[in-house]
């Protein structure tokens, strides 16, 4: 999880917002909303998920590669883990 | 919304599952799970959202272009709406 | 391939444009362009590929589900094939 | 562009491979290949573009955040640029 409390708060807020968006899709299904409108809601959630992913990735880069004192070797080992994440991130 | 009750049930089930996955991300944040693990959870939600989108789109194609009697003109008008959806769907 | 010559021309034009964009990435690599600028070029190609995909999919829906006289059963069989495409389309 | 010649070679090879894949789509259009098969080829190009993007991003992280001696402040400034790239990367 993010090392900075501030980062964690921001990310949790985004996650809560996405929860609200997903609940709205369920309501829309019950309210007989048009499929076109529901697809737009789903697109919006996907956009929010991508935004969340970017933010968590950025915080992770900050925590592992940027902040504090570190040697080239330490950062190099962190990058191996980050590469694995990137591979499943975009495929 | 989907015309067939069966389709609606399946889609609602997927939405509920995604709700559970998003709640699990919130719990993971509180449990100090590693960023790498949280990113994998977010990737999984994105996959589930894409799956939901495909299913709603497929049902929409069935309801508007396939099922029942329709003229070429009617289907042609439906396709204009579907094209708009596809454009925001993949960009 | 698209049934209408007009559709085929439009799609071929898009493909040629993408070829130009990919060649530009190769030149940028040779010209020592910054990684940030190259990543933006790659993003642009991805956007163009998504646009191409949407257009081919739309033409395919027109050719198989909209144009001409067809029975519900014929369209229903076409949808099975389209569903397979959609699944590999977004995953 | 990548600082290591080895990285540049690998990336150039990927770009050349994508060029071949895009040319194959043009040939498929001329050969009256089915739309379904063409859509699969387009999906494959998109996958290759995403793979290229990941590799360039990884090399960029290595060049800016990992390799050599750097201060926290320097890496922090690099991260601002990387964040901008990530935002246009996934949206």
From TrEMBL, chains A, B, C, D:
GO terms, molecular function = DNA binding; metal ion binding
Report any Pfam family annotated for this entry: Trns_repr_metal
Alphabetical GO biological process terms: negative regulation of DNA-templated transcription
Query: What Gene3D superfamilies does the database record attribute to this sequence?
Result: Metal-sensitive repressor, helix protomer
State the InterPro entries in the record.
Metal_Tscrpt_repr, Metal_Tscrpt_repr_sf
Q: Which family does it belong to?
A: Belongs to the FrmR/RcnR family.
Q: Which PANTHER family match?
A: TRANSCRIPTIONAL REPRESSOR FRMR (PTHR33677:SF5), TRANSCRIPTIONAL REPRESSOR FRMR-RELATED (PTHR33677)
Question: This protein is called what?
Answer: Metal/formaldehyde-sensitive transcriptional repressor
Provenance organism: Acinetobacter baylyi (strain ATCC 33305 / BD413 / ADP1)
């Amino acid at each position: 999880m993010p090392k900075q409390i501030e980062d964690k708060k921001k990310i949790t807020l985004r996650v809560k917002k996405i929860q609200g968006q997903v609940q709205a899709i369920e309501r829309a299904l019950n309210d007989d909303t048009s499929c076109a409108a529901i697809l737009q809601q789903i697109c919006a959630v996907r956009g929010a998920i991508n935004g969340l992913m970017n933010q968590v990735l950025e915080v992770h880069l900050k925590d592992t590669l940027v902040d504090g004192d570190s040697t080239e070797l330490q950062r190099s080992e962190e990058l191996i883990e980050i590469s694995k994440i990137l591979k499943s991130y975009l495929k």
